[in-house]
Write a structure and sequence with these properties.
The relative contact order is 0.12. The protein has one domain: Porin. Helix content is 5%, strand content 52%. The chain has 4 helices and 19 strands. The N and C termini lie far apart (57 Å). With 411 residues, the protein is mainly beta. It has an 18-stranded antiparallel beta barrel.
Amino acid sequence: MIAWLAVAALAQDPAVTAEVHGNAKTFFLATFPYENELLMPAGPYGQGVASGRVAFTARAIDHFTLEIHPAFTAQSGTDNPLGETVGTGVGLSAPEAVDLTWTNDDDDGTLTMIGRIDWLSLRTSYPGIDVTLGRQAIGFGNGLFFTPMDLVNPFTATTIDTEYRPGVDAVRVDGFMGMSGKISGVAAYAGDWDLEGTVLAVHGQGTLGVTDLGGFVGSIHAEPVFGVGVVTSIGPVGIHSDTTLTLPVEEDPFVRSVVGATWIQGNTTLSGEAYVQTFGAENPNQYLVVATADRFARGEVWQMGRYYGALSLGHQITPLISGSLAVIANLQDPSAMLAPNLSWSVSENADLSLGGYAGLGTKPEEVDPFDLLKPGTLEPLGPKKLGSKLGVQSEFGLIPVTTFLQMRAYF
């Protein structure tokens, strides 16, 4: 009898693995302006946006990960005021240390093509530490509607699609401690290489029982910022909060703080938040002063008042159809913005959404343009005096009715 020795060879994981996926999205928007010749051009206006993103990820020998996301956007109807009130969320950008964006307009300016390498990063990973260099998405904090700790490149409340945060050129180091401890350090390019043109931040978090505690220290465009965050639960209700203290050089210190709760029962989700920012305007006459500040132009804040509340109700109507209604209110004006949405899962990799935004509040008064000029010189008034002449009565009363149809497909 002859016996053969059989040896089973263990399959080895390949040294390099790669995966590619992406999406295609289209948006159709229509805005129906209120009557105000000075602040709102006559309409209605329409806008079409199409975008595509390819996500490429390669991993080598368990230690290195390369991520590249080229994104392309085409938009028409760019001569309307839609961009001032509602953003689709695609085609967004950020200051670039290396220019990887190209734009092409047609002759009459009605079609704009934008291409951008939105994410481009290399991450090296070893036990307890990750280091990521390049263009990447960065965000901190726990807020849903109001995000006082999200200071690198946040979304606004009227951004339709928040699936991908625009990448920023940065170095990020993440350290992991135990089962839940994590500390992250970020140095991000935000327009220049000096202190005023960068965002430097350290964020740490850990878990104590059922409570996650977080701390934040940063230099945001040369402004020191300190923050704390908490995520916990009381029975079936989840609780979250973020508070930051900013110490500007030429202004008074100010606080931004949000506290919120989320309750999920079956197919229904109810969320609410209360928010305060002490640098906000005390009345509508001062909104223009806030809106012309650097931090408002950078997108760090989008609110002009001081006290806000928000409530969102979502419900899964059927396994394929879900709806939601969100309300964001300025409690001083008072004014509010309604944001209804209805989503349908058309197939396993495609969905359709119909929604909109509507401002509720006193509309701006009609103003004679000559009242906005200095008598005699006819020079424009400064922001403080101009704000009292614009006829603004409420914050969300400025927002016209806008509807959108969004279609997304994934591969």
